[in-house]
Amino acid sequence: MHHWLRHISLPSYSPDTDVKSIEKFFVHHVEYTLARYRGNINQMGAYRALAMSVRDRLIERWKDTQLYFKKNGVKRVAYLSMEYLIGRSLQNAIVNLGLEENFSAAMKNLGYVLEDLYEQEADAGLGYSGLGRLAACFMDSMATMDYPAWGYGLRYKYGMFYQKIKNGCQFEYPDYWLENGNPWEVERLDIMYPIHFYGTCKMEMVDGKPHMAWYPQQKILAVAYDTPIPGYLTYNTLNLRLWSAQPSKEFDLDQFNSGDLYSSLGDRSHAERITAVLYPNDSSFEGKELRLKQQYFMVSATVQDLLRRFRESKRQLTDFPELVCVQMNDSHPTLAAIELLRILIDVEGMSYDESYKVICKSFSFTNHVVARSNLEKWSIELMEKVLPRHMHLIYEINHHFLQQVEKKWPNDQGKLTHMSIIEESPERYVRMANLAIVICHSVNGVTEIHSEMMRTEVFPDFFKLWPERFLSITNGVTPRRWMLEANREMSDLITKWLRTPSWTLNLDLLSDLARQSDVGSLQKQWSLAKHINKERLAGYIEKTLGLKVSPESLFDVQIKRVHQYKRQLLNIIYVIHRYTTIKSMTIEERRKVTPRVVIFAGKAAANYAIAKSIIQLINNVSVVINNDKNIGDLLKVVFLPNYCVSLAEIIIPAADLSQHISTAGTEACGTSAMKFAMNGSIILGTMDGSIVELSKEIGETNVFTFGTRAYDVPSRRSAVRNGEWGVDSRFEAVLSVIERGDFGSHDFAPLLNSLRYGNDYYLLSVDFPAYVEVQDNIDAAYKIPNLWNKKSILSTAGSGKFSSDRSIKQYANQIWKIKPARRSGPISVSAERLSSLGVIGENVGNMVSGSPINVVSLERLARERGNNDNSHSASLRSQRPLGE
Ligand SMILES: *Cc1c(COP(=O)(O)O)cnc(C)c1O
Fold first, then answer.
1. Which of 224, 671, 695, 831 could form a disulfide with 703 if both were Cys (CB 3.0 to 4.6 A apart)?
2. Domains (ranges, CATH) in the chain?
């Protein structure tokens, strides 16, 4: 490194954040990055120039943060996930920098509306569902709380498919989210690792000792793409490293030499296929070789990267767990541990026992699966073909493990069969979750009820063997994206009534709203904020579907992946029942009906026929009802296409009611209920996943719950199966009008058959009467505004526990044993912003970054952050144990 480089100052890249500097950076990027004329820049061009200007601010912090972690030799966590459902980044970055006012003013001066530029950005949809969104929320919390962390995943060229609805039917289109470039990533051609596949293993003698050598057949390069993840009002900025596949030059050269240019180029595109597309996180990818290669590609590159960084510390490899821990988001990255084991034994020459200790101390596993039948498994035939050496190691691990089982339960063949990492059915499989439990020091469920089911139903034998390994950490969501950014109206109101903006960093403060939930003026402002959000959603519905809905109606929302267990079908069956009931009413009776807009959004996996026909039914029902002049505004049904993060950000703040009605015992968590509660939406749910804890926090009388409890599900199922369950006549009536063709000629027979003849596995017919009853209670409650508003305020007040900050703190303290490492640096929050929040401190006129910074207010926020880590939680601890 030429040390004179240090003395060159870059005037245009100093981190100035005042309005004039922002304008200059923007114009700089228009002229030099985009090479366009100032007078000739469209909205997309303006978005890109703006995003680059924001990125410059982030890169500065991001480099400093990495350097700070390195210099201080802190222990770090690597978070491994096959999915990151990030959504958009521009607003998040600007808000986390505390600069929304300044950026808004600068854009206005240049003739743009900041919010319109936000809309230009494509969602980064590198995930399918809650699991991927969880990883994104966790990154935000880890950055905000200054934890030394790295995110690792894959840079898919095509994210979650783009959903279009034609004639009520779902069509899937490729989601090429990189079409307009991705200003948030930095391509790191300097960080590249070889990844090997296939080939054979041979036992060889090295220095007189037997040694297993792997001769792989394919080599593909993993190139790093880094995305800075800014924390909220902190200088710390983390890194999300996503790997992209690239053909390896030397491998191709061999083929060129053999004179076969075209098949060699064919291999090139083959290599790039590895990170081409995201597989949905459910059974539809089962057994796909490319998915297995994706998983190994991700973890091998990540492990090589962790080792490279660890080696810089010059410590012995046996110390690895003291500096690095690895958290696996579900069992998909489990091969990371096997890859590390392989490198320690085969490359570093460590003994099996020593190497095994290292991986056990470093790795931990979050399980997201509820039903045993959904646990991930890979055919051994495929594993042996793609990763022969890893398969050897898995056999070896299993051999040692089964000896332990045998010691604990002598001669218990049942235990050995159940617990073995290898499933010995006619086709043999590797059980990834069993493998993960064996090689990790900790395994956690994602809600209390889910963790209990893991102990008693999913992994009872493992729990008996290693009770100390099993933990429960309830998921959370980030209040920055889901409240502050998505719902500015309500956020400002909360700041005003709590008299501090620091709830965004300490969500437990929301509980103070409960005290004020009866105050008339708060209720009035609260419902006004909700109304503004409903108008915005109504505008979006009209723009998208050409349908007018009234913001005076109750907005009743169910948005999530479309799946039988999530029971959108129960919802639409009730809607049909509601429709036929209203139609049979006199005019007098109709006056008493609570008008509703029932809003759905969600994607079905492309090969999941029943889920797709549920989407068809919802759309067909909406056509009939919305065009029925006789019904008018009493009932509308809306299916918004292409559910994604940015759509959720519009819908959630506008919901009066949200539905989370999975059959009890089928949803591990369900994080969207947390987002809804934070936004003052009242919950209608079954006692499943997160709803159990939400209803405890919010108060059972303030949420609407119904339906079979998890412990009763098995007996109800058998009653249904044996035809012993008397089906509700209203339920049967709905099925017959569907059958009769009232909602189109589409063949709904498979759907109806999934409910009849003892096939109703998800217990729709069983829960239907209770569902109708609770819907009546909801209609009645909505008619009493102060009752409804109070429930709404209490929903927000009770949601403090569900901040992902709390989840991450538990992971850090209980599993990772890491501490925050805060790189100090200027935090830029404009004085206008703080005073608009009602935080009036002494303005000491400190000129940081060209604009006066309200130091007192910032210190106050910083103090709250300090409290966050110790003293404040003392008062909370008396209310509820965090299990710390
Ligand atoms: C939160 C979220 C999810 C998870 O929703 P659940 O209702 O918990 O299944 C899925 N997709 C998106 C886009 C989300 O924001």
1. 695
2. 130-472 (3.40.50.2000), 553-802 (3.40.50.2000)
